[in-house]
Amino acid sequence: MSSTTTSRDDRAAIDKAFSLLVSFGAQASTGLGVSELARRAELSKSTAFRVLKMLERNGVVERVGSGYRFGRRLHELGSAVYSPENERIREALTPFLADLYELTHETVHLATLHGVEVVYLAKLYGHRRVPSPSRVGGRVPAHCTAIGKALAAHDPAAFDALATAPLTALTANSLVDSDRLTLQLMNVRRDGFAVESEEAAPGLACIAVPVFGVGGRPVAGLSVSGPVGSFDLQQHSPALRQVAHSASLAALRAGLGASLRRPRSVA
Predict the structure, then answer these.
(1) CA distances from 137 to 18, 90, 129, 179 (A)
(2) Number of neighbours of residue 110 by Cβ within 10 angstroms
(3) What does DSSP assign to residue 115?
């Protein structure tokens, strides 16, 4: 077999494997049968079975009954994408997320920045749920969220990137003008909190504050969200500030942020 043929076959196998993995959808953790996966990936059942066996040998998927689900290797690979401090941040600050929920009884989030996207580390649901793009482990454009703005306002790299990069919209209210976003981030830096209304999802409003670690570096954000119209953003500002202050003290004690570069002024 020539090298050209081998290369072509490798690419075909990768395409099929990726199609199968994408086909799991919301059943990635619970599992699906070979027939359904083959149908979704538009592959023959025999081909799907052969590729799944290859993925199983490599720990990418694992058997569950007569079907398959995502395996340990995918979790390891996914975890490696994000900051190695994320697990430490989650362990140190999740108790403060619980405190914030007790004070507000609304949906609350703990998140960090990954480039110009928010990575959600923890989420507690309030009684008044609103459809939201936030999910634990998921990423959302920082400029569309209050928690992303609260962090980017104090992160020079993210601030500069958002000021120069094209901005995508999640809703008709998403802020995609760089000049307006820069001004808003400056105000967030001045006021100490960020808000958004229907910028991430219709009907959703949110207010957020940063949590600071070693050297005054923003290591995470805390937010409270609820339904537009019946959710008073300013009402939750005192609770957010109170919890964020305690969380920042805990972050300092845990040494969070020590591996980050010292921020420079963006004013």
Answers:
(1) 20, 11, 19, 30
(2) 25
(3) T
How buried is residue 22: exposed, middle or buried, by Cβ count under 10 Å (0-12/13-18/19+)? exposed
Largest CA-CA distance found in the chain, in angstroms, rounded: 70
Q: Helix, strand or coil for residue 161?
A: helix
For the chain, what is the total number of helices (H) and then of strands (E)?
9, 9
Tell me the per-residue pLDDT of 115-160, one tens digit each, with 9 for 90 and over: 899 999 999 998 877 888 888 888 899 999 999 999 999 999 999 9
Burial class of residue 231 (count of CB atoms within 10 Å of its CB; 0-12, 13-18, 19+): buried
Q: Could you read off the pLDDT of 90-106 as tens digits, one per residue?
A: 999 999 999 999 999 99
Distance, CA of 159 to CA of 181 (rounded, Å): 10
Query: Does the pLDDT at position 204 exceed 60?
Result: yes
What kind and span of H or E run contains 13? helix 3-23
- Alpha-carbon span 260 to 152, nearest angstrom: 14
The burial class, CB within 10 Å (0-12 / 13-18 / 19+), for 83 is middle
Instruction: At 195, give phi and psi (nearest 5°).
Output: -130, 160
